[in-house]
Design goal:
The chain is an alpha/beta fold and 126 residues long. The chain has one domain (2-123). The chain has helices spanning 12-22, 42-51, 57-62, 73-87, 115-123, and strands at residues 2-5, 28-31, 65-68, 92-98, 107-113. Strands 2-1-3-4-5 form a five-stranded mixed sheet. Strand 3, helix 4 (73-87) and strand 4 form a beta-alpha-beta unit. The model has no long low-confidence stretch (mean pLDDT 96).
């Protein structure tokens, strides 16, 4: 499984938790620096973020992907659309949450969201 991380780096114990939740090992972690210029057009910056993963068209369509999305909501939703276009489906996403009372603030893996399953289930409610 390839982990595409558009957020803060995950410590080893969080990577182990992801492997446990996913039921497979993480072969490679790709860290993508996600800095957006709010004064510039967003979509070219989103395309550049996806390009920074340096995956081939075949990898986008066949490699098992797990995404840690950026926290800025409009960046996350635009990136989701870009990734769907490259993959042909919604890749699974990692939801993180703050660790209660942690100083300094830290985050932990909460769950893996199977967005394709969410989409498919939503189609039955049309």
């Amino acid at each position: 499984m390839l982990l595409l991380n558009f957020s803060h780096p995950l410590p080893p114990e969080q990577l182990a938790r992801l492997e446990q939740l996913a039921g497979q090992s993480i072969a490679r972690v790709i860290e993508i620096k996600t800095q957006i210029d709010p004064q510039a057009d967003l979509i070219p910056q989103i395309v550049a973020l996806a390009d920074a993963c340096q995956l081939s068209p075949q990898e986008w369509q066949t490699a098992p992907l797990l995404i840690v999305p950026p926290s800025l909501n409009f960046v996350a939703v635009a990136l989701l659309a870009e990734l769907h276009g490259r993959c042909g489906y919604f890749p699974a996403h990692v939801r993180t949450r703050p660790v209660a009372n942690a100083m300094p603030p830290r985050y932990q893996v909460a769950e893996i969201l199977n967005l394709q399953q969410v989409r498919d289930a939503a189609r039955t409610r049309r």
